Amino acid sequence: MGNFKICKALFALILLFMIDKNINAQSFTPLDQSPHDIVYHRSSDNMALPMVKVVYGRPLARNKTIFGTQVPYGKVWRTGSNESTEVKFYQDVMFANKFVKAGTYVLYTIPNENYWTIILSKQTDTYGAFLYHTENDVARIKVPVGKGEMIENFTIAFSSQNYGSLMVLAWAKTRIKVPLYTESSLLTKR
User: Fold this and answer.
1) Euclidean distance between the first and final Cα of the chain, in Å?
2) Integer Cα distance of 70 and 112 in angstroms
3) pLDDT in tens, 83-124
């Protein structure tokens, strides 16, 4: 009986060592240099359901010239890094002057020096802009380029204005402001 207990204990110890070795031998991918982020925009009542949710990758500028070089002018850009940026509208909105039904869309942009073309596509779950096709466009608008202080990571934020909101795309010193209006904000305007 004593030998059985010793063998059982030795077997358990060897098994424990093998399990521990396998756990420590696991390799995990390193942290992404362009992490994903989620930003919500709510009405003035922070407890209200969100109006918009955006999931996007946040590449770094690293003191490089971004627009016109790393992100070429005149070409469709995923508007962030890695996975295509997804925008979920929880209610119907006016995307500048285009009506967009509640739902999830991919946000693409075409940067230019003085204006950007902002595109909402119904083709979701895509990587980059490799699968972009114009026939999937739900809305396409043009907005002027603005300037601001240096921002290292690409950032999407929201600000409220008198009768709606602005979705602000910011990276390096470039600022793009996309107007968003809901039915309630348009009714308030009247």
Assistant:
1) 91
2) 13
3) 899 999 999 999 999 999 999 999 999 999 999 999 999 999
CB 161 within 8 A of CB 171: no
- 66 contacts 100 by C-beta, under 8 angstroms: no
- Kind and range of the H or E run holding 185: helix 183-189
Tokens read off for 38: 């989620």
Q: Is the pTM of this model over 0.85?
A: no
Q: Cα–Cα distance between 44 and 164 in angstroms, integer?
A: 11
Q: Give dist(CA 41, CA 160) in Å, integer.
A: 9
What's the one-letter identity of residue 126? T
Contact 140, 34 (CB under 8 A): no
Domain boundaries, the chain: 38-189
The phi and psi torsions of 124 (rounded to 5 degrees) equal -100, 180
| C-alpha span between 86 and 88 (Å, rounded) | 7
Q: Which residues pair with 83 in a beta bridge?
A: 127
Report the alpha-carbon distance of residue 48 to residue 60 in Å, rounded: 32
Instruction: State the DSSP string of 112-144.
Output: -SSEEEEEEES--S-BTTTT--GGGEEEEEEEE
Identify the H or E element spanning 44. none
Q: Which of 50, 21, 127 is nearest to 82 (CA)?
A: 127
